[in-house]
């Protein structure tokens, strides 16, 4: 018997109301307020067989779920912890046969909602409201409108006004709704970088790690035990650390990237937040109460009441960007070795069709910005917003990678990724695969942005002017997709500049892109001399 299973008391006699706690609802705040409740947890290897989830992600989810089950048992709840290999709907059907009607808080993930739908329709599983969101569908519709396209800033302003957040006389404190133009400093070393928090794994966490290293050894990534907050107390420590060590400078360095520090002044709270270990309300209220500069406070509040809530609503209202069935050319699990379910059908407005190159699984490309971002993800399951958007998704999009493959990679590799959050972020924001549903234009850029906001170029084997291919890929991307951007006024300026480029510059951009695609598909490092000769 394992340490965990022997810690479970197994006392369930006399319980007549059962509630299923989903894998990402690990909070007492999300439970019905009935102490005589029996709580069901399901740990199924089926989930891990859907995508090659990073080992750190599996460890984080399972160690938190197991600890949460024991924390609830200590709090007096009866706990039924089921191990299985089947899909959630199947396991719950058996449990309904055994226990009768079961309640569940509305799952955030569409995949889980779909899996339990037949039981819900049969009245065997009763869905309760999820009180962990800060805004309602009605808020979203009133703020952003009933139909796409939706814009985050409109929704955000509505929520600030409706809930009187950072307002003075009904106007935004500081005079503007967004203080982002104060939040664009590159890393300049002007202040001390925060010391990273570490955790000591207990027996239960060590057992989870052991199990993953054996049972899921075919999954990518590695487990860093000291980077695994597992208990309720660990989550509290993490948020206390974020409040004390990063929130003050959250704003100004929000977009900065440096080789010296993976997380800079980001909170790294998303994985615990998306697991339900802490409620967004706590983050919001605590952030509002902090004595920190307004640009940091407003910047953080916008992420929590703006972006996070916004993508959740968009995903739910579009049913996960459901589209009519078009054949999917993407490979299962973005080409990761092994047998994985067929890739999901996905919108693909730009008709990108290249496979995810081995670089994303850890082979070197020679582009230091990309190689650093990938190795950070392989080592930790984390990268902050700008490497995700302006390095990983940007270069992926410029390469023309199939958006499903890129999405599945993000979904598998990031410890905070769940369908409701990863799909809008990659398919809409990162790749423009859904067109203008929630962004006005693709977030693409050339070398200058990465050079300005990061400190990679000086150490890169590719010279930022002579051999870095990213700007050429950017121009070639605009050329290849010009039909899609005609009439898009936000793209008018780059398209005008594109039109003024000489044919020779366009041919060079095409040749550079072709060379990069060819090399990266083979998992080969880019040769600076070859790139230099194409570009000269
Ligand atoms: C291509 C791409 C993929 C992404 N995939 C995910 C994902 O799978 N899961 C995820 O939680 N976030 C995702 N994001 C959003 C964002 O990058 C992460 O939430 C953030 O980097 C998490 O790190 P942090 O906790 O240190 O964030 P901080 O910078 O400290 O921000 C605070 C919090 O704001 C919230 N937040 C900020 N931006 C977003 C956003 N766009 N969507 C949702 N929440 C947001 C997060 O909960 C985050 O913890 C993605 C962004 C991009 C561009």
Give structural notes.
With 536 residues, the protein is mainly alpha-helical. The chain contains 22 helices and seven strands. The strands form two sheets. A five-stranded parallel β-sheet has the order 3-2-1-4-5, sandwiched between helices. It has a two-stranded antiparallel ribbon with strand order 6-7. It binds flavin-adenine dinucleotide. Flavin-adenine dinucleotide (FAD) binds at residues 266-270, 273-274, 303-304, 307-308, 311, 384-385, 388-389, 393, 410, 414, 416-417, 421-422, 425-426, 429-430.
Keywords summarizing the entry:
globular; 536 residues; five-stranded parallel beta sheet; 46% helix; 7 strands; binds flavin-adenine dinucleotide; single chain
Main β-sheet, spatial strand arrangement: 3-2-1-4-5
Percent strand: 5-15%
Cofactors, ions and other ligands in the entry? flavin-adenine dinucleotide
Secondary structure: number of strands: 7
């Amino acid at each position: 018997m394992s340490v965990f299973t022997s810690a479970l008391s197994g006392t369930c006699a006399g319980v007549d109301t059962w509630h299923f706690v989903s894998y990402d609802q690990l909070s007492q705040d999300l439970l019905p307020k009935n102490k005589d409740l029996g709580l069901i947890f399901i740990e199924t290897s089926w989930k891990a067989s859907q995508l090659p989830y990073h080992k750190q992600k599996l460890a984080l989810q399972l160690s938190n779920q197991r600890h949460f089950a024991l924390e609830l048992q200590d709090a007096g709840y009866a706990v039924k912890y089921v191990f299985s290999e089947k899909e959630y709907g199947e396991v719950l059907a058996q449990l309904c046969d055994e226990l009768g009607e079961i309640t569940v808080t509305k799952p955030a993930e569409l995949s889980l909602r779909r899996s339990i739908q037949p039981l819900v329709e049969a009245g065997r599983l009763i869905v309760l409201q999820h009180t962990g969101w800060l805004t309602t569908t009605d808020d979203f519709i009133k703020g952003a409108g009933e139909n796409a396209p939706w814009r985050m800033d409109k929704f955000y302003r509505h929520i600030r006004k409706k809930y009187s957040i950072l307002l003075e006389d009904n106007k935004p404190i500081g005079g503007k709704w967004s203080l982002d133009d104060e939040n664009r400093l590159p890393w300049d070393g002007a202040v001390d970088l925060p010391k990273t928090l570490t955790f000591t794994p207990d027996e239960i966490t060590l057992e989870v790690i052991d199990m993953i290293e054996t049972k899921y050894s075919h999954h990518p990534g590695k487990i860093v035990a000291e980077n695994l907050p597992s208990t309720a107390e660990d989550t509290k420590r993490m948020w206390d650390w974020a409040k004390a060590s990063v929130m003050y400078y959250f704003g100004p360095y929000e977009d900065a990237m440096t080789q010296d520090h993976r997380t800079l002044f980001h909170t790294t709270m998303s994985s615990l937040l998306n697991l339900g270990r802490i409620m967004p309300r706590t983050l919001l209220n605590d952030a509002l109460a902090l004595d920190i500069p307004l640009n940091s406070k407003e910047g953080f509040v916008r992420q929590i009441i703006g972006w996070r809530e916004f993508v959740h609503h968009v995903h739910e209202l579009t049913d996960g960007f459901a589209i009519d069935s078009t054949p999917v050319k993407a490979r299962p699990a973005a080409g990761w070795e092994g047998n994985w379910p067929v890739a999901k059908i996905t919108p693909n407005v730009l008709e990108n069709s290249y496979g995810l190159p081995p670089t994303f699984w850890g082979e070197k490309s020679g582009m230091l910005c990309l190689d650093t971002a990938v190795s950070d993800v392989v080592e930790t399951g984390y990268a902050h917003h700008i490497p995700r958007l302006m390095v990983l998704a940007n270069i992926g999009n410029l390469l023309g990678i199939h958006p499903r493959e890129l999405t599945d990679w993000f979904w598998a590799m990031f410890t905070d990724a769940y369908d409701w959050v990863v799909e809008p972020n990659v398919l809409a924001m990162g790749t423009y695969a859904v067109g203008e549903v929630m962004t006005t234009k693709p977030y693409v850029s050339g070398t200058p942005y990465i050079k300005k906001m990061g400190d990679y170029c000086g150490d890169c084997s590719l010279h930022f002017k002579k051999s870095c291919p990213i700007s050429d890929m950017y121009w070639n991307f605009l050329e290849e997709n010009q039909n899609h951007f005609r009439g898009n006024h936000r793209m008018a300026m780059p398209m005008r500049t594109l039109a003024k480029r000489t044919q020779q510059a366009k041919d060079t951009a095409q040749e550079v892109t072709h060379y990069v695609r060819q090399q990266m598909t083979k998992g080969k490092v880019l040769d600076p001399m070859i790139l230099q000769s194409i570009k000269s």
